[in-house]
Design goal:
It comes from Gossypium tomentosum (Hawaiian cotton). About 20% of the residues lie in helices and about 20% in strands. The chain is α+β, with helices and mostly antiparallel strands. Among the domains are: about 50 residues, no CATH class; about 30 residues, no CATH class; about 35 residues, no CATH class. The protein has a three-stranded antiparallel beta sheet with strand order 1-2-5, with no helix packed on it. β3 and β4 form a beta hairpin. The radius of gyration is 21 Å and the shape is globular. The relative contact order is 0.13.
């Protein structure tokens, strides 16, 4: 019995908790007649500040802004990209894209040529968490404290250790 209890404490899952109700608005001080206000927010019309090293800005709309999203496990983001930002093609061409999640694994692609991306871009995305966060992979991988073992990073990203020595201090 003790072994089973020990094994169960070692098993961990990370996900939004299962809702106890199908629909549960997170209103602490409901005032009769304010129902619609608790289910509406205008998506930000103005672009966020993209003058940062990443050249992008993420504006989150989640359960904190739309209380009606509580227990629905969804949120929305508006992503702004600066001109000449994340995928700037200077020479040659880039074949870029992404693959949708389960079950279809559908591939979306585009070929970018030099000079294609001269203006700011905006994307809207739906996320499968009611309180999703934003993670910058480079900052997390190369700027962790304490630093991730360079041997692990070199293998994971298929990089030379000298490249890692160059990257890690920048994050």
């Amino acid at each position: 019995m003790l072994i089973l209890i020990l094994l169960e404490t070692l098993i961990k899952d990370a996900y939004d908790p299962s809702p106890l109700q199908d629909f549960c608005v997170a209103i602490k001080d409901f005032k009769n007649g304010d129902w619609a206000e608790q289910h509406y927010v205008s998506m930000p019309k103005q672009a966020g500040n993209t003058s940062n090293p990443d050249g992008s800005n993420v504006t989150m709309i989640n359960v904190d802004q739309i209380l009606g999203l509580n227990t629905l496990s969804i949120s929305l983001v508006r992503i702004g990209y600066a001109p000449y930002g994340i995928l700037l093609v200077v020479e040659g061409t880039l074949y870029v894209g992404f693959v949708m999640a389960n079950p279809t694994h559908c591939l979306f692609t585009k070929i970018l040529n030099p000079g294609d991306e001269k203006t700011a871009a905006v994307a809207f995305a739906g996320l499968s968490s009611q309180n999703a966060g934003v993670i910058t992979i480079a900052n997390a991988a190369f700027g962790s404290n304490p630093p991730i073992n360079p041997d692990v990073l070199a293998k994971a990203f298929q990089l030379n250790k000298n490249v890692l020595k160059y990257l890690q201090p920048r994050y």
